[in-house]
Amino acid sequence: MTPPDGTLTVGVEHLAEGQVLATVAGELDYGNADRLTDRLGPETGPGRMLLDLGGLEFCDSIGLNAIVRLWKRMHEAGGELVVVRTSPLLTELMEITGLAELLGAR
Question: Which spans of this chain does the record mark as coiled coil (predicted)?
Fold first, then answer.
């Protein structure tokens, strides 16, 4: 579900032991990227985080950086972060920057 007026929403669902689905929608940018890392930071660990970015309407370089920081935190904790869904625009941006391969973006 896309939030109104370009705000950012981050939902978390625990699927199985050690596996979390994080759903992100709206706009991820310089004004709210910290909200993403603040909300998902406690979920980082040795498990697996599935990151659904299909609801993102906009993402700037600061937003991409927040996603990379989450990936790094998961990796350092022995976990894995995988992007399971993106929008066509975000997929193109991730491919241009080389992040699609790193994050397993589909």
Answer: none
Task: Name the residue among 74, 76, 26, 72 with its Cα closest to residue 49.
Answer: 74
- Residue 94 has a pLDDT of 87
pLDDT at 1 over 90: no
Residue with tokens 């920081």: 69
The Cα 106–Cα 71 span in angstroms is: 16
Q: Tell how strand 19-28 and strand 48-59 pair up.
A: parallel
pTM assigned to the model: 0.88
Q: Mean pLDDT, the chain, as a whole number? A: 90
Separation CA 47–CA 104 (nearest Å)? 16
Kindly report the CATH number assigned to the domain that includes residue 24: 3.30.750.24
